Amino acid sequence: HVQLVESGGGLVQPGGSLRLSCAASGYTYASYCMGWFRQAPGKEREGVASMNSDGDEFYADSVKGRFTISQDNAKNTVSLQMDSLRPEDTAMYYCAADHGTSRSSCTVVAATQYWGQGTQVTVS
After folding, report:
1. Burial classification of residue 76, based on how many CB atoms lie within 10 Å of its CB (0-12 exposed, 13-18 middle, 19 or more buried)
2. Nearest to 82 by CA among 94, 71, 66
3. pLDDT at 78
C-alpha cells in the first residue's frame, strides 16, 4: 500500500521561500514518477513539477526558474524548493506518484495514481 505524506507548507510573504517534502512508503517498483500538483480555490488541480526513474523532469511554465524538484532515494523522499513565491502560488499542494514514466505520468491528474493528503501554501 503506497502512502505519501507531505510536510513543509505554511504562510510566507511574497518573494519568500518554502520547501515542501514528501515521504513515500510502500512503493517497491523500479519504474516510477513522483511530483507535485496544486489546487487553488475554484480552480482545477494542475501539475507543478515532477521527476521520474528515467531521469526526466517537468516544470509548469508558471514555476520554471523559481521551483526545483529533488529526490533523496535513501530516504524515499521528494522535495519541492519554492523560491520567489508569488500570491498566485497560493494553493493546496499535493504530492503524487505513479508507476508510469510517460509524459503525462505525474503531470496530468488522470494519469497519476497515488496522492498525498495535501499541504497548504499561502503567499500573502
Report:
1. middle
2. 66
3. 95
Residue 5: what are its φ and ψ, rounded to 5°? -125, 120
Three-state SS letters, 42-107: CCCCEEEEEEECCCCEEECCCCCCCEEEEEEHHHCEEEEEECCCCHHHCEEEEEEEECCCCCCCCC
Cα distances (angstroms) measured from residue 81 to each of 7, 71, 85, 124 = 12, 11, 10, 18
Residue 70's Cβ-count burial label (10 Å; 0-12, 13-18, 19+) is middle
Tens-of-pLDDT digits for all 124 residues of the chain?
889 999 999 999 999 999 999 999 987 778 899 999 999 999 999 999 999 999 999 999 999 999 999 998 777 899 999 999 999 999 999 999 999 999 999 999 999 999 999 999 999 9
Q: Which three cell numbers stand for residue 118?
A: 495535501
